[in-house]
Amino acid sequence: MSPPSPSETPPSPLIRWEGVAALLGGALWLVAYALSVPLGRENGPARADASASWLGWSYFAAFSGAILALGAGLTGLQVRLWRRRRLVSLPGLLLAVLAFASAGANALLLMGLLGPARFDHARGGQGVMATCVSAALLGFTTRRAPWLPRGVSTALLATGVLTVVLIAASTVPLGPVPAYLVDDLPFALAGAAWISLGVAMRAKP
């Protein structure tokens, strides 16, 4: 009996680990949004400080943890896709690594290993954008590939693009609606999308 062709080879069970990473990242973004509401009430228009309160530190820890998990999952998935079918785009892989590295650097800062606990907002924004663009590139690259379900590829593409659009839209004032209810809302919506993606990835036979 001849061995199965690459297209017939069953996917590695590691996709379940990457599904867990998507679930964890999405859940942490939901937690970050839940923490951002009381934090916004507490600070008003002032920028939150990770060392000023337990609430602020917890918010930044959840936010960075989400990017760390998503960056790790995207990196692992793209590396394995490249090894199996050479489908991954190099920019998408590099951006996934950048997201992971940015979040890792903020994790070190928050733990106080490099001085007082703090959060680098520039690195945080870099990690978010890198995660979104990497997901969109991965979704676009794999839409016609049998290795990932078409629905998962389309959802990756849509999640990456729409998260950026929603972040831009959240900067527009909404009249009497408090800013702290809107500023981080895109991450709550993206978190829900990533949880759905994680469930779909883990359910893949």
UniProtKB/TrEMBL annotation:
UniProt keywords (A-Z) are: Membrane, Transmembrane, Transmembrane helix
Transmembrane region(s): 20-39, 59-81, 93-115, 121-140, 152-173, 185-203
Keyword Signal part of the UniProt annotation: no
Is Cytoplasm set as a keyword in this record?
no
Identify this protein by name.
DUF998 domain-containing protein
**Per the UniProt entry, what species is this protein from, by scientific name?**
Archangium gephyra
- Lineage, top ranks: Bacteria, Pseudomonadati, Myxococcota, Myxococcia, Myxococcales
